[in-house]
Design a protein that fits this description.
By secondary structure, the protein is α+β, with helices and mostly antiparallel strands. It has four domains: about 240 residues, Jelly Rolls; about 40 residues; about 30 residues; about 60 residues. It contains six helices and 14 strands. The strands form two sheets. The protein has a seven-stranded antiparallel β-sheet with strand order 1-4-13-6-7-8-9, with no helix packed on it. A seven-stranded antiparallel β-sheet has the order 2-3-14-5-10-11-12, with no helix packed on it. The termini are far apart.
């Protein structure tokens, strides 16, 4: 007996009908018809702009570090029951760094933007954080806020999580799938089709928007988003009943079955897709490094020109050298002159000069004092005192000079 109805085609049709296209991207094997934007979504970046490729969005690149990126849906989710699937991949150096958040919040783009769960202020809704905080190899944690708690000033962010599970998400070489399911009776989170955490105390309201943000430190991680799909649970269709062929019925032509992909072909395609995405990541990083090298080359050229302007020319250097030679010759001449003369004659000349200066000064002072006394008789006592004091001062200076001269070293021929 052989089944010959196209059951898989019906299932694909039912899945396509359930997708909420205004809150999804990447479900048609292509992120966007162009590399400038994603229809129905808005990109935000700090330190760089998130890059759109044919099959993914790079929120934070491998180079440089200290960057942020986010993408926010323009439309709200009106369905009360939904399933959200995030296909992402994270990779970077051996030392872990960075975080990824999936938001379902009110006014997310204006209040949250490209912040993380550690730098966001007050928000209203859900935040699902994926990082290596706390020394773990990786974890997925859920946070709720009604707009009254400011997270960035809270002492312990870990205590605010209502659910979590450990998940080593870095450098897996393949996309990871995180699925959120909201029903009137339960909120559930699964990672790679494995239960992470669930609760019956959380009911998220309709009318909120989805958003994804990523942030990296100096040692960055590259966070890549391959697809984000939001499906309405109530919009699925039932498949038609299975029809069976009679045993005596002539079998249908299966020549086209040889063209169907085998499991090995699917695995090979998956490996090729992974290799292609890695090559695109390497290409992106290489372009960033090339731009940085070009910028450094330009700075080096500017510095070289500035240095050439400050360096002296050959003529200026020759002129400076000739000046130094003349100064050196003059110093040598002075040194030879001093070596060939006796300092005693110079001291005797200085002594005679001081004695003659003292004699002339005394004569001039006496005449000045006499004139002052004759012109100002009432102040005679003051001038007499002044004359005596000055004479004593001169005598003291002379005695000091004689003692100093006597203390000088003697030079014998």
């Amino acid at each position: 007996m052989r089944l010959f109805l196209s059951l898989a085609l019906c299932s694909v049709t039912a899945l396509a009908d359930s997708i909420i296209e205004s809150s999804s991207f990447g479900y048609n094997q292509r992120i966007s018809p162009n590399v400038d934007n994603i229809p129905g979504w808005h990109l935000v970046g700090e330190g760089h702009r998130p890059q759109i490729l044919s099959d993914k969005v790079i929120l934070t690149p491998l180079y440089p570090g200290n960057t942020r990126g986010s993408i926010w849906a323009d439309a709200t989710v009106s369905e009360p029951e939904w399933i959200a699937e995030l296909h992402f991949r994270a990779g970077g150096p051996e030392r872990p760094g960075g975080n990824l958040q999936l938001w379902y919040v009110k006014d997310g783009e204006s209040q949250i933007g490209a912040t993380s769960i550690y730098t966001v202020g007050k928000f209203d809704g859900l935040a699902l954080a994926i990082d290596t905080h706390g020394g773990r190899g990786g974890s997925v944690r859920g946070f709720l806020n009604d707009g009254s708690t400011e997270y960035k000033s809270h002492n312990s962010i870990d205590s605010l999580a209502f659910g979590h599970c450990d998940y080593a998400y870095r450098n897996l070489g393949r996309p990871s799938v995180i699925r959120l399911k909201q029903t009137p009776s339960q909120f559930e989170v699964t990672v790679d089709d494995k239960p992470c955490f669930q609760t019956d105390k959380v009911i998220l309201p309709a009318g909120y928007k989805f958003g994804i943000s990523a942030a990296t430190p100096d040692m960055p991680d590259s966070f890549e988003i391959f697809k984000f799909i939001v499906k309405s649970i109530t919009s699925t269709h039932k498949a038609p009943p299975v029809q069976q062929a009679r045993d005596d019925q002539q079998p249908t032509n299966d020549q086209g079955s040889n063209d169907r992909p085998t499991p090995d072909d699917k695995t090979s395609d998956s490996h090729f897709a992974d290799i292609r995405s890695r090559l695109q990541t390497i290409n992106t990083g290489s372009n960033s490094i090339l731009r940085e090298i070009m910028s450094l080359n330009k700075d080096a050229k500017d510095n070289y020109r500035e240095l050439l302007q400050k360096v002296v020319t050959k003529d200026q250097l020759a002129s400076l050298d000739s000046r130094l030679q003349r100064i050196e010759q003059a110093l040598q001449t002075v040194q030879r002159d001093l070596e060939g003369k006796d300092y005693r004659d110079r001291f005797n000349q200085l002594h005679e000069t001081l004695r003659s200066s003292h004699a002339r000064l005394s004569e001039n002072l006496q005449s000045s004092i006499y004139h002052t006394i004759t012109s100002s008789a009432p102040r005679m006592g003051f001038f007499i005192f002044l004359v005596i004091s000055f004479q004593i001062l001169l005598a003291g200076l002379y005695v000091g000079y004689k003692r100093r001269r006597a203390a000088l070293p003697k030079k014998f021929l």
